[in-house]
Amino acid sequence: MIFIPTRSAGLERLADFLPRAGRAYAANRNHDNGWPTDGGSRPNVSQLSPWLHSGLLSEREVIEAVLEEHSPDAAEKFVMEVFWRIYFKGYLEQHPGAWGRYCANRDTALRRIEGDTGLHALYLQATEGRTGIAVFDHWAKELVETGYLHNHARMWFASLWIFTLGLDWELGADFFLRHLIDGDAASNTLSWRWVGGLHTKGKTYLAQPENIARFTANHPLGPFYADGLAQEAQALKEPVMPARKPLDLPHRFDLGTLREPYALILHDEAASAVPFDLPYPPAIVIGAARPEARSPYPVGKPARAFAESAVLSGAQDAEQTYNAPFVTWTRDLALADILGTTNVQQVVLPYLPTGWTRDALMPHIASLLSDRRARVLLNDLNRATWPYATAGFFGVKKRIDHILAGLGSPGRISSAST
Ligand SMILES: Cc1cc2nc3c(=O)[nH]c(=O)nc-3n(C[C@H](O)[C@H](O)[C@H](O)COP(=O)(O)OP(=O)(O)OC[C@H]3O[C@@H](n4cnc5c(N)ncnc54)[C@H](O)[C@@H]3O)c2cc1C
Predict the structure, then answer these.
(1) pLDDT score at 417
(2) Pocket of ligand 1, candidates 14, 25, 76, 85: which has the most ligand atoms within 8 Å of its Cβ, to mutate?
(3) What is the pLDDT of residues 221-244, one digit of tens each?
(4) Among 17, 205, 245, 306, which one is most buried in terms of CB atoms within 10 A?
(5) What is residue 39's predicted lDDT score, i.e. its pLDDT?
(6) Ligand 1: distance of its center to the CA of 151 in Å?
(7) Whose CA is nearest to atom 50 of ligand 1?
(8) What is the distance in A from the centroid of ligand 1 to the CA of 332?
(9) Which domains does the chain have, with CATH numbers?
(10) Per residue in 332-381, pLDDT tens?
(11) Ligand 1 atom 3: residue of nearest CA
């Protein structure tokens, strides 16, 4: 198995990748070199996204490890990519309407294909890899089988989906979320919007056959030559988005001020307690994985298995570290019932970013938050970065040095302010 849903496997992946995270990454990252079962390998990218998305590894520890190994100049490209992830999360926090609108439009589009035989057939051809565009069909199958696609393949796939096949982008984003092990509400929704010309207004991404052939040249089945692709990409249109919502971040608090024992909730986006470095141990650990909330349609096996096992492994680690019993919070249980079986009335949980995990868990936690029986942890890197993620990435990019210096992290990203 390539993606093992434990923190220790993520740390091994990071250690293995570190020597290549500098100039080699910057030079080679855009090549899609294929999946091992096709005879390929991907030493040119980290493939750390499943551990970052699940919170088994934190962005900060990954960035700091890379900056310990490489000069800031050499590490710049990799660090910047990790900041794209943080930027997208901060942007969606301030534009939750982009998520809400995506969910509503996805549901409408799913209903539409169910009522339209021709559209339904096209949708099935696309998701089952039977369009006749060989390269697209390859990626569709690779995604379903492995739960991962290279970044360039994601861009090409999304571009073909929207501009060549003419399908609703929300259906493609849903297909990705149901199958990507690293499926992330912010990175996925905003990247699809970016390809379609909705994120950077009017700027679309058109997949070019020469570009696909060039960057799949080392693929064991490549180079891929794609015929019949759209020649132009007209930006999609949508009603004006609601104005930016100011960030409402949880106050920092000292766990020591909790007078009672507390339950720690681990979830799909924060499956490990280690990055939080808790100064006081929880009395119980509650694991709440909700991969099925990604979509009204079934979620693929690799994505579901990784999410569930990540939360399980993170909760088991916490159980051992803190000698605190661990309980699984399944969908059919109310949180109050779990707490009712213990003497614990306070809960502490890592921040629930905009997305399906928040949608699934927040209804159970909202009343505890208003009674101040629930407290929320937010890591310092997100806290420091999100206020700059108000519009384009540049607002974050030019402050990366400042943000890292404020956290006492090593290194400067030399061109961050250019
Ligand atoms: C249409 C589309 C959908 C996407 N959906 C997702 C998604 O659901 N979840 C997800 O994590 N990423 C998504 N991405 C971003 C990117 O493709 C993946 O993060 C990356 O391919 C993961 O592989 P890696 O870990 O080897 O990346 P590396 O190249 O090794 O990069 C290191 C880390 O930086 C972050 N990163 C890299 N590139 C990007 C990027 N373009 N945007 C945001 N973060 C980035 C990831 O956390 C990644 O693990 C999407 C991109 C596109 C174009």
Answers:
(1) 40
(2) 85
(3) 999 999 899 999 999 999 999 999
(4) 306
(5) 81
(6) 6
(7) 188
(8) 33
(9) 7-93+383-406 (1.25.40), 98-215 (1.10.579.10), 255-377 (3.40.50.620)
(10) 998 988 998 888 989 999 999 999 999 999 999 999 999 999 999 999 99
(11) 188
Which residue's CA is the closest to the ligand 1 atom numbered 6? Answer: 188
Cα of 49 from ligand 1 centre, angstroms: 6
* Mean pLDDT for the stretch of residues 168-185: 98
Q: What is the pLDDT of residues 287-322, one digit of tens each?
A: 999 999 999 999 999 999 999 999 999 999 999 999
Please tell me the distance from the alpha carbon of residue 31 to that of residue 219, in angstroms, as a whole number. Answer: 8
Ligand 1 center–CA 119 separation, angstroms: 29
Inter-residue long-range contacts of 244-249, CB under 8 Å, 24+ positions, other chains counted: 244/94, 244/95, 244/390, 245/93, 245/94, 245/95, 245/96, 245/97, 246/94, 247/90, 247/93, 247/94, 247/386, 247/387, 249/378, 249/383, 249/386
Which whole-number Å values give the CA distances from 282 to 273, 320, 341, 388, 390, in the listed order?
Answer: 10, 12, 16, 33, 35
Say whether pTM exceeds 0.70: yes
378's tokens:
């937010």
- CA 252 vs. chain centroid, Å, equals 24
